[in-house]
Amino acid sequence: MPSYRAGTIVDCLTRKLRATELMGDHRVFEVYDDGTLVARTRLSHSFRRTTAIGPSIVAQIKRDLKLPTWREFDDLLRCPLSRDAYLAIVKSRTS
């Protein structure tokens, strides 16, 4: 399992997926599509942009985003997978 920098994950969530960021005990990111909650994940406030996030936390984020394969998760972070393609994947697996 790969590790990723916190900044890469946060940028993907906030820019590509247009997630809403909520503050609390953790940074909570919620992805909505037409007002419907699609996915929710969280990161610790202690993670700085350059912090490498370990495999177990990355695996949890992948599950939270409802992406079963590492390839889809990696494509989401590295840009081949767009927001619309991500939403289509999630919808096809939940319906």
Give the tags.
three-stranded antiparallel beta sheet; 24% strand; alpha+beta; 4 helices; 5 strands; 95 residues; two-stranded antiparallel sheet; single chain; globular
Please give a quick description of this structure.
This protein is α+β, with helices and mostly antiparallel strands and 95 residues long. The protein has four helices and five strands. It has one domain.
Describe the structure in your own words.
There is one protein chain. The chain has 95 residues and is of the alpha+beta class. It has one domain. Helices cover 44% and strands 24% of the residues. It has helices at residues 6-16, 55-64, 70-78, 83-94; strands at 4-5, 20-23, 27-33, 36-43, 52-53. The radius of gyration is 12 Å and the shape is globular. The mean pLDDT is 92.
Round the mean pLDDT to the nearest integer and report it: 92
Helix content: 40-55%
Structural class by sheet pairing and helices: alpha+beta
Instruction: State the oligomer.
Output: single chain
Regions with pLDDT < 50 over 5+ consecutive residues? none
Taking the sheet with the most strands, its summary is: 3 strands, antiparallel
CA-to-CA gap between the ends? 28 Å
Strand runs, count: 5
Shape: globular
What strand order characterises the main sheet? 2-3-4
Order of secondary-structure elements:
EHEEEEHHH
What is the rounded Rg?
12 Å
What is the tally of helical segments? 4
Total number of distinct structural domains: 1
